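User: Okay, second chain of the day. Same drill as before: sequence in, structure tokens out.
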Amino acid sequence: MDRKVSTACLKIGMYVSRLDRPWVQTPFLIQGFFIKDDNEISLLVKYCDFVFIDTELGVDADMYFDNPRAQQAKLKTSLSTNTQVEAILDMDKKLFDYVDKSTTVEELPEAKQALEKATECVAEIIEHDIHKGKLDIVKVNNAVEPILESMIRNSDAFMWLSKMRLYDAYSYEHSLQNCALGIAFGRHMGLSKKALNTLAVGLLLMDVGKIKLPKELLTKSEPLTPAETEIMHKHVAYSVEMLRNTKGISEHVINVALTHHERYDGSGYPNGLVGVQTPAYGRMAAIIDCYDSMITATPYRNAISEHKALQSIYNLRNKHFQTELVEKFMQCMGVYPTGSLVELSSGEVGAVLSQNTQQKLRPKIILLLDEEKRPYKKRRVFDLAMQKGVPVHIAKSLENHSYGVDVKQIRI
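Assistant: Same drill. Structure tokens below.
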């Protein structure tokens, strides 16, 4: 029986009976063959978006394109999911309760060391290992571990420093922000340390396949054409292929790469999964990836404020994203996320340094500009929750560069 399969889901042992294009447009000389090795998967990914496999002759796939949408909505995913996340969503109760062991200011030196070590490790992974077509799980863990340890002690310090980094459209540093967001999200939900590590690795590596895309596509200064978008979508299959070839990579990590562009209403890619057919980590990664892309500038689109990005995510609940996960992400990030620029009711301008878990509207602020929008000679931390007299409050969020302030240039 022929079944339609995304090339992101191909495995050794499958029997390819048909392609999504004429055989003569590909290097395959035999019309119908067993996939024998990773090189054949690489070629199929390069030339095809999907293929047809004969399930009576070869290995089955985890997901198929040809299930009716109505039937899909009733099915549980056959992809492995994280039972901790599912339990937390079902019970609406944390399994682990993390308490800050240091203040944000106290943690900043440790967070700085963690960021520098992680950046060095990721640079080596991207610039050397991936270009050779392989990954070293030890190096990956060396990149994730310092971030995880710092954020378990205090999540705001690393989030602040990662926000201060300068990113470009294809920089490996961009993946560190996703990794940090994932740890913050999972920590807030109450996942175990082991689960946090798996989620963090998945988010760090979910876009490694972009290394195989043309660099000019990643740095293009105009929106992608439909044809270029199709090429861009291939990074999912490239990422899955690379991760499957890496010893020590768990199926959960592979599934993050496979499913982080799926959408709750079935409008995503590469498989059009519906609802919880997308594993829990993939559903979380979809929110994180979308949020981070909104707050990160590209050559053809300006970044929007964190506050506006959260509003956009909220408006997409039960459409692109699961409502319960959106609500927990909103709680995690706060009304005004760490690193965001805000204007106070006093007229002063500052940046959010850390969250107040009890009073979401009263975070700690680093004051940057006075009431007349003049730079303070000496910056100070202002705790909105610890005021006397008439309380000052956040009047509105600001886009970066408002009043000439570039958040990324702030140093404490």
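The chain has 15 helices and nine strands.

User: Thanks, on to the next one.
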